[in-house]
Structure formats: structure tokens, C-alpha cells
Design goal:
Its EC number is 4.1.1.33. By secondary structure, the protein is an alpha+beta fold. It is built from 9 helices and 14 strands. The model has no long low-confidence stretch (mean pLDDT 95). The structure holds ligand 2P0.
Amino acid sequence: MTVVSRATAIAHPNIALAKYWGKRADGHNLPAVPSLSVTLAGMATTTEVAFDASLDRDELHLGGAALPPDAEATRRVAGLLDRVRAASGRRERARVVSRNDFPTAAGLASSASAFAALALAASAAAGLPTAPALVSDLARKTSVSAARSAFGGFVELRAGRPGDEALAATPLAPEDHWPLAVVIAVTREGPKDVGSSDGMRHTAMTSPYFPAWVDAAPSLFDAVRAAVLARDLAALGAAAEASALCMHASSIAASPGLLYWTGATVEVIAAVRRLRAQGTPAFFTIDAGPHVKVFTTPEAQAAVGAALLAVPGVLRTITAVPGGGARLAPSSGGA
Ligand code: 2P0
């Protein structure tokens, strides 16, 4: 009988308040800048990993469909599994079955929750330790933002340094530190045109503003971090918006320019500024896509949601609050 070792893990997406954009030229998938994010509740990736000696290659099933062996996602998953095999001495290939309970077109970094869940499930299935810092480092080696989804609440990840081999995110404050609400204004259905990894590589290689972004990012990160610890929404909004706009400015200045926004993206920025001028606490951030994520207070969430839905080009909104880190499913005993 073939012995199958399996485990299932659940992880949540995160939204960066201080953005990661760009990798160090040396080392393995090390971020060039520090980042700080909040992990979300309510939306989850659930991933089962089963090491099975009867398989002759790693398999990835996403949302019920088997991906081809040469798909980019399958190769990234196999790369993470290779690290788990090297660390555990296992040789079997694995079947990975993953699903998101949120629309990937929402512009939430589905790779963050996906690789955090995969790192935890694969470690548990292989009998490796599953301390969050180890899971975070393993996930980071495949997708930097996934390092942050190993933890819940407010999470920071320092920039890589020369010679770094391990680099894990660290928790800054728990999810109940500050009851923020997020309203995501969805401005387009369907996948984005240029993925994050390609977009940041193109920016680093061709944008004259990329070095300026790398210079500016640490002090923006410091301001975001201080505002989170002080629960100062106005200060957080100023620093988080600056981080997002500097990141996008670096991409817009690439050659050819990389513009993730649509007209609706700009209209939502204007709507957030109008809300603020009228006394509603709100600030925006934008990732590698056209959607806008608006942070506000629980009290103002309904008014912010209504205002965003009224913006031409906003298709729908999704609301979320801070949530917990990656965890093993209750039925998942590990190896
Ligand atoms: C972030 N993003 O800090 C930034 C802001 C998108 C914009 O992290 O190449 O999928 O896998 O390390 O983590 C998305 O980039 O890129 C991202 P890789 P990743 O959330």
C-alpha cells in the first residue's frame, strides 16, 4: 500500500500599507525594501498537500482544475516542494489541491495566501517544524508577500541584506490592535495584464525612478510603522498613500511605462480625497492592479462603501477586517 502523508492549511491574503516592490539583485528572492501589511479575515486560501510515492511529478489543482505541468504556477509550487523535500529528506512527489473562497480578480494578492498556505501544509505533511517564522521564510523564497501572510494582524518584513539566507516576516501587532475596516473597490473583472514579479523586474531594470523608490521606501515604512503602533489614522493614511504612489510612480516611469490603473482607479482616489475633505476618515492604497483598497474606521465603513459604489467604473465592493495568520486545518494531523 502506498503511504500518503497529507496536511491541509488555511491562509489569508494581506494588503501592504508600506509596499514591497523590487528584489535585491543578489540572494534568493530578497525584497529590496521593507514592507508592512495587514492580514485580512474573511477571505481564505485552503490548500491540501499529499506526498504520494505513486506520483511521478508534482500536481497542482486550483479551484477544481488541474494545471499543466509547465504552467508558471505549477513550476513555482514544485520549487517550494523541492525545498521541503531537501529539508526533510523526502523524495515523493506531491498532489496540491488549493482553492480560494474569494474572487482572485479582486486584486488581492492571491499568491500571498496561496504560498503561505502551501508552505505550512507542505511542511506539516513532510514532518518538518511548522513554526510561523519557518513557514514565513519558506513562503518568502517563492513569493515575498506570502511571507507576511504566515502571521496575522499587522506584519512587517525587513529588506533583504547581503548574505541573507533566511528572511522571515515578524508580527508587529495582533489583529485586535486596531479595528480598521477595508473597502475594496473592484474596477475590473478578470486577471491583470502584467503580474507582480514581471512588473517589478521590468521596473527595476528600466525605470529611472526605481532607485528613488528604493531610497524613499525605508522612511515611508518607518512612518507607516509608527502610525500603526500609535493607531494614528491620519498619519497612517499619509504614509501609506505616499508608499503606494511612489511605488506606482516608479512603474509608470519604466520603459515602456507600466500603468496598472484605469480611469476608475483615479476616480476612486479623487472620491477618497473628497470623503476626507468632508471629515470622513479614509485613505487608499493600490497594488499591482486597477482596484483601490480603502481603509477606514468600522463606524465610517458603510458611508465609505456607498461613496465608492457611486463612483463610475466601480463594479462592486468587498469589505474586510484584520485577521489571523496561517493555520493548519482542524482535521489536518500533519505527517
Ligand atoms: C505588496 N505587491 O507589498 C506589493 C505591492 C504588489 C504591490 O507583494 O515576485 O506576488 O512573488 O515576490 O509577492 C506582489 O508581489 O511578488 C506584492 P513575488 P509578489 O503587497
